[in-house]
Amino acid sequence: MPASPSPLPESAIVARLRAVGCVFAEDEARLLLAAARTPAGLAAMVDRRAAGQPLEHVLGWAEFCGLRMAVDPGVFVPRRRTEFLVRQAAALARQAADPADPADPADPADPADPAGPGGQAPGRARLIVVDLCCGSGAVGAALAATLGHVELHAVDIDPAAVRCARRNVAAAGGQVYEGDLCAPLPATLRGRVDILVANAPYVPTEEVGMLPPEARLHEPRVALDGGADGLDILRRVTAAAPRWLAPGGHLLFETSERQAPRAVAAVTRSGLIPHLASSGRLNATVVAGARPAAAGGPGG
Ligand SMILES: C[S@@+](CC[C@H](N)C(=O)[O-])C[C@H]1O[C@@H](n2cnc3c(N)ncnc32)[C@H](O)[C@@H]1O
Question: Are the C-beta atoms of residues 289 and 274 closer than 8 Å to each other?
């Protein structure tokens, strides 16, 4: 319920936010006014935002792929660029569901429509989607909403992220596990996963200190630090992926453009067929790896 009457007029909120450097002060003021339940609540939210907390932590949600995802304080805020990972995964999932689908994953659907609901061939078993390093669960939840009927499993090592993700994947009936990468996944998923997405931490350790304060001070280090070259966790994900992917299944993860050649080399070493896609508009790079459809038993 919007706070009304407000002790803080919109113009005063805008001025306060602008004074601390909020570029979209008008938009943020409107969102805070709409979210606050009481005048005191509004004042507290404005104080938190003016003190530098990410807007999404103050509001308790972030918009991602046109959906509202719950984001608790201390949990990584899903980034707009990661919508490209969802679109790439949705395009490959559609191909897995219906190999006759001519969708070109390098040129995914209209950005305004991340993929549109549905997309599985009638009669096919539900696609199995795993979201590793799920944070708030936004990637898996958006993918499930885009594709419709999927079996969704998500993992994070951080208990706060796991609690938050459980709320976001509930609509898809998904399961969230706490633990290290694939370790907590049910063994019954081995060799059966159609889409394995991982927006893992990929900031090189030395660059974490250069991130904007909203990330550096309000998102956990475990969500950001990817080791010396930023690829430590992604190399582990890539090495594990062939054991979990179904024949013809796909691994997808986000990197920086600079890291992409080394990430592609890791995918190739793991025995997957690499594919690189990028979006200039979203400044996003996605590395994918397909398990060959004709492969024998799960390797890796
Ligand atoms: C960059 S955040 C991305 C979160 C989410 N995928 C998104 O795009 O919004 C990376 C996440 O990986 C989790 N993480 C880091 N190391 C992990 C590990 N070894 N196993 C599982 N999760 C891990 C962090 O807790 C964090 O939530």
Answer: yes
Distance between Cα 113 and ligand 1 center (Å): 26
46 residue type, one letter: V
CB 237 within 8 A of CB 251: yes
Give SS3 for 149.
coil
* φ, ψ for residue 79, nearest 5 deg: -95, 150
pLDDT tens digits for range 63-105 = 999 999 999 999 999 999 999 999 999 999 998 777 666 554 4
Ligand 1 centroid – CA 38 distance (Å): 34
| Residue bearing the CA closest to ligand 1, atom 12 | 133
**pLDDT at site 182:** 98
Distance CA(146)–CA(100), nearest Å, equals 19
CA dihedral over 147, 151, 157, 163, signed as positive or negative: positive
* 266 CB-near residues (< 8 Å, 6+ apart): 231, 234, 235, 238, 239
Mutational pocket test of ligand 1: of 67, 155, 156, 219, the residue with most ligand atoms within 8 Å of the beta carbon: 156
**CB–CB of 231/266 below 8 Å?**
yes
Q: What is the DSSP string of 26-41?
A: HHHHHHHHHH-SSHHH
